[in-house]
Amino acid sequence: MQHVDPYGVLDARLVFLGTGGGAHVERCHASVCLALSQTEALLLDTAGGFQIVRALKLAHIDLPAIKRVFLSHRHSDHLAGLEPLLLHIGLHAIGTGQPSGRVTIYGHPIVLDAGQTVLEAMASFAPSLIEMTQGDVEWVPLTAGETVRLRPGLTLTPFAVDHEPRDGSNLGCRVELDYGAGPWRIVYSGDTRPTLEILHYTQGADVLIHEAGGLDANAERVHIAGHSTAGEAARVAAEAGVRRLFLYHMPNEAIVRAIEEEARRYFHGPLSVPSDLESFALRDLITLTEETP
Questions:
Q1: Residue 75 in domain
Q2: What is the extent of the structural domain holding 186?
Q3: pLDDT tens-digit series, residues 185-218
Q4: Is residue 7 pLDDT above 80, yes or no?
Q5: CA–CA separation, 137 vs 135, rounded Å?
Q6: Whole-angstrom distance, CA of residue 127 vs CA of residue 109
Q7: What is the 3-state secondary structure (H, E, C) of the chain?
Q8: What would the pLDDT profile of 147-161 be if each residue is shown by its tens digit?
Q9: Position 4 in a domain
Q10: CA 23 to CA 140: how far, in whole Å?
């Protein structure tokens, strides 16, 4: 049976722009891009600064394609790239003569307030540049457990995670993308200690992108910082029955191999610790189930 693919999402790819944690100085900080087509992309976090703009360029993702951004929480290694991103979207529009269009930012109200405060504190010209080029920045507050329809065939469901500060503002998300024969389900943990909430929202997911802040042997120290161990992430993936597990947010480069080895003890499906700029076609990650004619 031929799949209906009105948005061209069968060519969608998952691009790991940044896979390092805040203490990592060799990798770009946390940012994952769901590149749906040449003209549409959903960004999950914005890394730690101007590195996000460079990563997008190296990944051949056009700035005008960034129409939606999800911010998981307000730590600098996830949010600090927002201002440079918006600035360069506006600069690109001026340089090319193309409209900026709307950029929609999703996150907990506290996180969105932090993002706007950062722009104001920097006296950022980014929002003005976007407005000058026939665009605008829209801030959409999220409530844990309430699904948001981003556009036909694309939804985002935020869920509460356990990170610092413990004020309820930290979110992970489940993205569902309809390609005509059924949804692709991608779960992004953000930063979190192990919780029943993430296990619930990961049930039946095709892809789980889960942070790993260390090893089971150092679980107490990992939890103090608000993170999960590689073993804990892998056990979530195994219990939830996900098809593919990616571990990201590496604390340092020396521990990467040990993190992958520990995760493989508990999750026996396809698993990897991607490098910065690694790209994966969704249709290669997920086995499409064909309906019998």
A1: yes
A2: 12-283
A3: 999 999 999 999 999 999 999 999 999 999 999 9
A4: no
A5: 7
A6: 19
A7: CCCCCCCCHHHCEEEEEECECCCCCCCCECEEEEEEECCEEEEECCCCCCHHHHHHHHCCCCHHHEEEEECCCCCHHHHCCHHHHHHHHHHHHHHHCCCCEEEEEEECHHHHHHHHHHHHHCCCCHHHHHHHCCEEEEEEECCCCCCEEEECCEEEEEEECECCCCCCCCEEEEEEEECCCCEEEEEECCCCECCHHHHHHHCCCCEEEEECCCCHHHHHHHHHCCCCCHHHHHHHHHHHCCCEEEEECECCHHHHHHHHHHHHCCCCCCEECCCCCEEEEHHHHCCCCCCCC
A8: 999 999 999 999 999
A9: no
A10: 30
Structure tokens given for 8:
């061209």
* Reported confidence tier of residue 5, pLDDT bands at 50, 70, 90: low
CA-CA distance, 263 to 273, in Å (whole number)?
A: 10
All residues at 6 or more sequence positions from 88 whose CB lies less than 8 Å from its CB, including other chains:
53, 63
Q: Flag whether 65 is in a domain.
A: yes
Could you report the per-residue pLDDT of 65-97, keeping only the tens digit for each?
Answer: 999 999 999 999 999 999 999 999 999 999 999
Q: Does residue 96 sit within a domain? A: yes
57, 91 Cβ separation under 8 angstroms: no
Q: How many domains does the chain fold into?
A: 1
